Amino acid sequence: MNNPPASIARLRHGGCTWALGGVSGDDTALERLSAVLLSRWQPGDRLVVLGNMLGPSGDPVRALDLMLLLRRRLLARPDAEVEDFVFLRGAQEEMWHKVLQLQFAMSPLDVLDWMLARGLMATIEAYGHSVAEGRIASRNGPSAIARWTAGLRRRHIEQPGHPDLLNSLMRAALSADGRIVFAAAGADPARPLNEQADAFWWNGASDGALDHALGQARDGGWPAIDRLVRGTGPTNNAADESGRVLTVARDHPTLVGLDADGAVLERVEP
To answer: Beta-strand (E) ranges in the chain?
Structure first.
C-alpha cells in the first residue's frame, strides 16, 4: 500500500522500532518501561504506542502525563523527528471519545454502562468526575447529559497536553516499506486498510485466526504485508511470536524492540 490514508501513519526508515502495548492506565509499569526505553534508545529509533494508554490498571491520567514526558525526552535526543513517535487509538481511547458525546446516543444509559464495564470507569474517576452523576444524567435526558459531559471535558482540558494527544491519535501505522502494520487490537484482512472501520481497536480474533486470515487474503494490500503487530489480544489468546501476528502484551504492559522485518529483538516487561 504505497499511499496510506492520512489516518494511518507511515514510519520512516531507521533503526529499531519500539512497540509499546497493553498499558491500560498502568502508570507504575509505564514509568519502569519508560526508563528502560530511555536507556536503550539510539538515533534513528522509532516508537509506536499501540493504543489503550487509558484503562483500569492504574492511574490513567498520570499514565498520559508519563506518555507526554517520554515523548518530550525522546524528541530531545539527537536525530529524533516528530514523525518517529506514533500514538494509536485503542478501545479505551475510543470509549473516551464516545463518552464525551454521550448526549447524542440513542440509549445513553445502556451505552454508558457498557463502557463502564469495559474499563472506562477508571478514566472518568481519574479525572475527578462522578460516574454516579453520569448514570443519573443518562436517565434525565440530553440536556442533563450535556452538562455532565461538559464537566468531564473541562476536567480533561485542564490537564496540559491531554486533549492534544488524544485528538491526534492515528488509526494504525505502517513500516517505512509497508510490510508491517501496527494496530491496537488487530485488523480485518477481508477489508482494505482504509476501510477497517473499528477493526483496528475492537478485533477479538486470536493470533492463529488472524494469521490464517492474513494468509488467505488476496486484496486490500494484504499480500505485501508480512506481519501484523498489535498491542493486545483476547484473554484466551495463544501467542506465537514466530507467526504473521505478534501480540505485544500478554498479562502486563510490554515493550518490544523490532527489527526491519518485524522480528523481536528484545522483550521488556515491568
So the answer is: 8-10, 17-21, 46-49, 85-87, 172-174, 180-183, 227-230, 245-247, 254-258, 264-268
One domain for residues 193 and 236: yes
**Residue carrying the nine cell digits 492506565:** 25
For the entire predicted model, the pTM comes to 0.94
Integer Cα distance of 8 and 91 in angstroms: 17
Domain that holds residue 56: 8-90+169-268
Place of cell 489480544: 233
200 in any annotated domain: yes
Residue 256 near residue 270, CB atoms below 8 Å: no
Same domain, 182 and 78: yes
CATH number at residue 26: 3.60.21.10
- Out of 163, 188, 219, a domain closes at 163
Residue type, 232: T
What is the reported pLDDT for 192? 85
Last residue of a domain, one of 105, 134, 163: 163
Domain count, the chain: 2
Amino acid, single-letter form, for residue 257: G
Q: Is the pLDDT of residue 223 over 80?
A: no
Helix (H) or strand (E) holding 36: helix 27-40
Pairing type for strands 172-174 and 180-183 reads antiparallel
Domain membership flag for residue 124: yes
Q: What is the pLDDT of residues 9-42, one digit of tens each?
A: 999 998 999 999 999 999 999 999 999 999 999 9
The SS3 call for residue 118 is helix
